[in-house]
Write a structure and sequence with these properties.
Layout: H1 3-14, E1 17-20, H2 26-38, E2 42-46, H3 49-58, E3 66-68, H4 76-87, H5 94-100, H6 104-113, E4 119-122, H7 128-139, E5 149-155, H8 161-164, E6 166-170, H9 180-198, E7 204-207, H10 218-233, E8 239-243, H11 245-249, H12 251-257, E9 269-271, H13 275-288, E10 292-299, E11 305-307, H14 314-327
Parallel strand pairs: 1-2, 1-4, 2-3, 4-11, 6-9, 7-8, 7-9
Antiparallel strand pairs: 5-6, 5-10
Length: 329
């Protein structure tokens, strides 16, 4: 069973409700219908009802997909009152809260916050900033995790390294230059992604151009500090650093460069020191090794929220719906 098959199977067992606040986008509407037909989730399209119904007809969807128009929703008053309580110390008035819950993005975030949905997926139309702004204001990050980050599950064909060719790599999309504290949080969140989505027991390597003091530099110091902080955050997590990439994933190199390390030579979760290294690294693996790149997967939120590429295909959106459902397990 490949990784996406596992994700589909796991999602289909859960019956999670995933809300889609870009319901009038043709790709999103079609993906919702496919996800519902496959039993991956109970999708809810958010937006103007007549517009969404017209789109569903246009893309040939015959089965009924739930639609909620925030401007007509029974929940709107309750959501506005709750949003006001959440944000009044930030200067939000009740009238402003009422206006905000008419925005599908804020309505979707309130559905998740109030337990009426298990997660939301957006970004096919909206920017990453617009996707996460309601989430960060309303849902917030998980306890002890100071930031949202992203990961890719990489599936490398004909590879014995990692977890038989499966790796989780982070942060490849969101945080350009994380601090040591942020890097530690990314590592802990990525380990959770490995467990829940990839179905592997994480062995986390904090990557650097140095292995165990082989080089001295402030960039190395950041990774050393991040390793220490990650151990403090998750004492039971199998994690080590700083490690060069070859020492992290190649057994004979790991044994030579970091003898006695519980991770060296067998890491399956790779934490890069910054976005430049991570983005270059995952794309090298994707292109040169012809690896499947599943993601970017958002991590670190208290409840599941995922951001799509604005170039996302229908299949991409279906996959992210399934991922979001499984993250809510």
């Amino acid at each position: 069973m490949n990784v996406m098959e596992r994700i589909y199977q796991g999602a289909s067992r859960l019956g999670k409700t995933i809300t889609l606040p870009e319901g009038s986008d043709e790709r999103v509407a079609k993906a919702a219908a496919i996800a519902q037909e496959k039993g991956l989730a109970r999708p809810v399209l958010i937006g103007k009802k007549d517009e969404i119904e017209a789109v569903l007809t246009k893309v040939g969807v015959s089965e009924k997909v739930e639609i909620i128009d925030p401007e007509q929703a029974d929940q709107a008053e309750d959501y506005a009152a709750s949003l006001y309580e959440l944000r009044k110390k930030k200067g939000l008035s009740l009238d402003d809260a009422k206006a905000l819950v008419c925005d599908p993005m804020y309505f979707a975030a309130m559905m998740v916050k109030k337990g009426d949905a298990d997660g939301y997926v957006a970004g096919a139309v909206n920017t990453t900033a617009n996707t996460f702004r309601p989430a960060l204001q309303i849902i917030k990050t998980a306890p002890g995790i100071p930031l949202v980050s992203s990961a890719f599950i990489m599936v490398v064909p004909d590879c014995s390294l990692g977890e038989n060719g499966v790796f989780v790599m982070a942060d490849c999309a969101l945080n350009p230059n994380p601090t040591a504290e942020e890097l530690a949080a990314i590592a802990v969140a990525s380990a959770q992604t490995a467990r829940v989505l990839a179905g592997i027991e994480p062995r986390v390597a904090m990557l650097s151009f140095s292995t165990k003091g082989s080089a001295q530099h402030e960039l190395v110091d950041k990774v050393v500090q991040a390793t220490q902080k990650a151990h403090e955050m998750a004492p039971d997590l199998l994690l080590d650093g700083e490690l060069q990439l070859d020492a992290a994933i190649v057994p004979e190199v790991g044994q030579k460069k970091a003898a006695g390390s519980p991770v060296a030579g067998k890491a399956n979760v790779l934490i890069f020191p910054d976005l430049q290294a991570a983005n270059i690294g995952y794309k090298l693996v994707q292109r040169l090794a012809k690896a499947e790149a599943i993601g970017p997967i958002s991590q670190g939120m208290a409840l599941p929220v995922n951001d799509l590429s604005r170039g996302a295909s229908v299949e991409d959106i279906v996959n992210v719906i399934a991922i979001t459902a499984l993250q809510g397990a």
